[in-house]
Write a structure and sequence with these properties.
Blueprint: H1 19-24, H2 27-39, H3 41-51, H4 54-66, H5 70-79, E1 101-104, E2 111-115, H6 117-125, H7 130-141
Antiparallel strand pairs: 1-2
Length: 142
């Protein structure tokens, strides 16, 4: 099974271990990768472990999904007083989520603010549409 994974040249590029890379690799490339793995097993395992850490995943998600880093996230958080932009719940509220979610416009990619996980999902379920939200409000008010 180890022969199926090719060695990444850099950890900075997305989709390093994507199956597309594995399927496109030739038997010679897989053999070279396997040889590299066994010759550098501790180094490779340390690198793979680092990419699975919560901090690395958080950095990756902020940077590649939203184009911001942790400092910019913390600036947004401070601007909102450390709470959800809609309900005012703090990031350490009642949910399992450790951080507030970055809410963004799916069409433009522009960041709107930080929301608790429930409301961020709720807006997504309402298709980011003010009209659908108005209809939902009208429905709730009966």
């Amino acid at each position: 099974m180890g022969a199926e994974y090719s060695h990444p040249e850099s950890l900075s590029s997305p989709n390093l271990y994507s199956m597309e890379r594995v399927y496109k690799s030739t038997p010679e490339q897989r053999a070279r990768s396997l040889a590299y793995y066994y010759a550098n097993k501790e180094k490779v395992q340390a690198r793979m472990k680092a990419t699975r850490s919560p901090d690395y995943n958080r950095h990756y998600n902020l940077k590649f999904k939203f184009g911001i880093d942790q400092t910019e996230y913390e600036k947004l958080l401070a601007e909102q007083g450390g709470v959800c932009g809609i309900c005012g719940q703090s990031q350490s509220g009642s949910t399992r989520a450790k951080f507030l979610a970055v809410d963004h416009d799916h069409t433009t990619g522009k960041i709107r603010g930080l929301l608790c996980a429930q409301l961020n999902k709720g807006i997504g379920c309402l298709k980011d549409s003010p009209e659908v939200l108005r209809q939902a409000l009208k429905y709730l008010e009966g």
